[in-house]
Design a protein that fits this description.
The chain is an alpha/beta fold and about 220 residues long.
Length: about 220
């Protein structure tokens, strides 16, 4: 490339950090005099109750070759500890019954341990693009809405799970957990529910990206 960009930002999934593709990328960037920082971080480290572990690379080009340690950073550049928020802080005030988890999803997967979260929990699993569809294994958490005094129970017991009022997180709730600004962000009415889940499952956590972009664009990686 005759005129390489000054800044680069990359996001990828877990295990990209150990891939040949990443190794080749870093090799080329170093030859082109980029200062590089790599991160493997989740929104949980910012107190956000959603565990979405992702690989990030930020790079800034300079005149001469920079020192590169190859170390993957597992914390974000924030000042001081972040208070852990609860899932209830991200929930809709009311929820349509159409978000209730169908009974067959509970009874047909007897050998699968669903990730069920309580409104007072401080974590939920990654929401993928298949969340809310018929492909439910490993796509995201279910929310407990009944018998909220019950916190310790066998997660793989269909009889117990049927009593907990399990429902899907709504697209708006998932968007909040991804830190999209609730007062400024909304989907067009023409976008279906499944399309919203797909878009959110392929998106990133806004606040995590914001911290990394700030570090990149203020060139703190060059001066550190």
């Amino acid at each position: 490339m005759k005129n390489p960009p000054k800044y680069l930002f990359l996001e990828n999934v877990l295990n990209f950090e150990s891939s040949r593709c990443r190794e080749r990328l870093v090799e080329v960037l170093r030859k082109r005099n980029y200062v590089i920082e790599e991160y493997l971080v989740s929104p949980v480290c910012l107190g956000i109750p959603n565990d979405r572990l992702r690989y990030y690379l930020i790079a800034c080009r300079q005149e001469s070759q920079a020192h590169f340690t190859g170390k993957i950073i597992r914390t974000l550049p924030v000042d001081g500890p972040c208070e852990s928020k609860k899932i209830q802080d991200y929930l809709d005030r009311e929820c349509d019954p159409s978000f209730d988890v169908p009974l067959r999803y509970i009874t047909d997967y007897k050998q699968y341990k669903h990730d069920v979260v309580h409104p007072l929990d401080t974590r939920s699993t990654t929401f993928t693009k298949a969340y809310g569809s018929k492909y439910i294994i490993g796509t995201g958490s279910f929310l407990q809405t009944k018998h909220l005094d019950m916190r310790d129970y066998p997660k793989d017991d269909p009889q117990v799970l049927q009593t907990l009022g399990l429902r899907f997180f709504t697209p708006d709730e998932v968007a909040r957990l991804h830190c999209f600004p609730g007062d400024k962000f909304s989907f067009p009415d023409s976008i279906t529910r499944l399309q919203r889940y797909r878009l959110l499952g392929n998106s990133m956590n806004v606040r995590v990206v914001a911290y990394l972009l700030k570090r990149l664009f203020t060139e703190e990686i060059v001066n550190s």
